[in-house]
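LAB NOTEBOOK - FOLDING QUEUE
OPERATOR: T.R.
BATCH SIZE: 2
PURPOSE: Compare the predicted structure-token outputs for two unrelated chains run back to back under identical settings.
PRIORITY: normal
REVIEWER: second-year student, initials M.K.

ITEM 1
FIELD SEQUENCE / FIELD STRUCTURE:
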Amino acid sequence: MSVEVFGHVIDGVCETPVGHQSELVNPVTGDVYARAAVGTADVVDRACRSSAAASRKWRRATPAQRQELLLALADALESNAKYFLEVECRSTGKPLAQVRNDEIPQCVDFLRYFAGIARSLPGAAAMEYAEGATSYVRREPIGVIGSIAPWNYPLMMAVWKIAPALATGNTLVLKPAEETPETAVMLGVLAAQIYPPGVLNVVCGDRDTGAALVAHPVPRMIALTGSTRAGVAVAKAAAEDTKLLHLELGGKAPAVVFADADLDGAVAGIVAGAFYNSGQDCTAATRILVQDPIVEEFTARLTAAVADLRLGGPDAVDRLGPLVSRAHRDRVAEMVNRRAINTNVRIGGGKLAGPGFFYLPTVISGVEQDDELVQEELFGPVVTVQAFSTEAEAIELANGTKYALASSVWTADHGTAMRMTAELDFGCVWVGTHGTLTAEMPHGGFGSSGYGKDLSEFALAEYTRVKHVMHVTGA
């Protein structure tokens, strides 16, 4: 059986891999189905120099020209959606319906959104702030961006990195996750047919490849989506030559359910927000905080709803997919197995027998605030339930981890919702839903969840630098 091989895309050419290659494993079956190049420091250097050369001209492209090419990339992705669907599901085990109905349309929409706002970057009017001189602000591209994408949404995270960077006139070296590089390479091949050579380069590889990209002197900004541990390592390395950083890191999102909430709506919304993508989402609702009077009823309803979830491969209807790798599935299992003795596994709590990297949807009650399951990101289909008495206690528990990316509030009272949204220390607070994203609104957290915003006009500003220009007029 022939094995497909994915190579780097550098200077407009999809290269035939040479040297060491990584194995790509189907998480549904556990079988190796393809291989990918592993970029060395020399490969990273070629990609960075290619992007630097392309930057000299691309940075002068007008907003209208940037818009035109981003729209062309969106059209190309939409036209080739069938192929991206097949490859994305093969590499991740995601349900076909999830990728076909949600993720690919969102990727196309995000590209078109950034194409639109590429022509409307805000700027200050020229003004005489000093006597005899006129000042104005230039908003310029940063230059070459080094981007590192994660494995949980391979295509979407590639788009999140590419769209704002190219919309603002930067060039880009993108390193996709070692486990799931395929659709990023495919997007790079499409871009090579649309953009000048070197504007978007894709380098496959492992942790060492990413480290070489961060350490390379050419990129002036590193944009990483990944774990908090990875973010800390990148920040330390980037400090050596004062690179700008854009870090979207881990999460441990609370969902706070008050006694007056619509329980059916809260259960349905939290199950969707917790178990979408098998919980492999930094915004997943992993900590369910429930007010005392309803905690037992809510937990029973939640457990019953989770019991209806089924596991299966991409072709299965209404199923959760596997975790991305054996190593990650084992990490989730080990963390659950280390749980405190006072906890109660209401449902799940183990691996699914058979091939693939499936983990049973799990609900655990009886946890304490300092338990590992409450404090540390697990990144799998596991939620914990805690009780609270007062609004003040709910705020203390919700804010009581190092992560500050996303949260949600479930209540029928407008005043409660308003107070909670002000007090919850998270980059996003949903009310009556959990996990809904839109291109027009920013995504990003505080604290150990990183800094910088994806999506929206705020992301566009992240990929620019501001220069003050003053002309002496003598008037």
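ITEM 2
FIELD SEQUENCE / FIELD STRUCTURE:
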Amino acid sequence: MKIVFATNNKNKIKEIQSMLPQSIEIISLESIGCNEDIPETAATIEGNAVLKADYVTQKYGYDCFADDTGLEVDALNGEPGVFSARYAGEQKSAADNMDKLLLNLDNKTNRDAQFKTVIALNIKGEQHLFTGIARGTITLEKYGDQGFGYDPIFKPEGFQETFAQLSLETKNAISHRGKAVKELIAFLNQDSINNF
């Protein structure tokens, strides 16, 4: 089975492909000739995932899935949320985003947060949504050099390390994206889908 993943983020493609069974092969946007930035103008994480999946299905005619992820910090009323990738500006710099978040949390004792991933799957003319949540806390500084995005400052519940200090295998087992992908895989493995 081949399915388009509506992203140009090579880290995400690598992370999700490593979780999928060998029978499911991800095709990148680049591979289908989609090199434009798909607009992410929705007010919610769910909305952005749907926008991206619908864009590929409607414009290119492929079954596909798209994800959107946000970091929601309790003390900041859910910020950066839907603006996670461009929290510090349109340059979408992970370092700048983390610096801004740490600054905004300065002097705050509640550092609880959650990562939320929503995957929108368009397949056989139907749309299905899968959600994964990972609770944790925001650290005082950056630790680790694995992963991407806010991983160096997010310590998942039950761990002393940040996502950026964990192996990809361990992170996938507990992460927001890992949980959403597990739901996606369970759905794709259903007999009715295997024959598409």
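REVIEWER COMMENT (ITEM 2): The beta strands are 2-5, 25-27, 64-73, 112-123, 126-138, 154-156.
FOLLOW-UP: none requested
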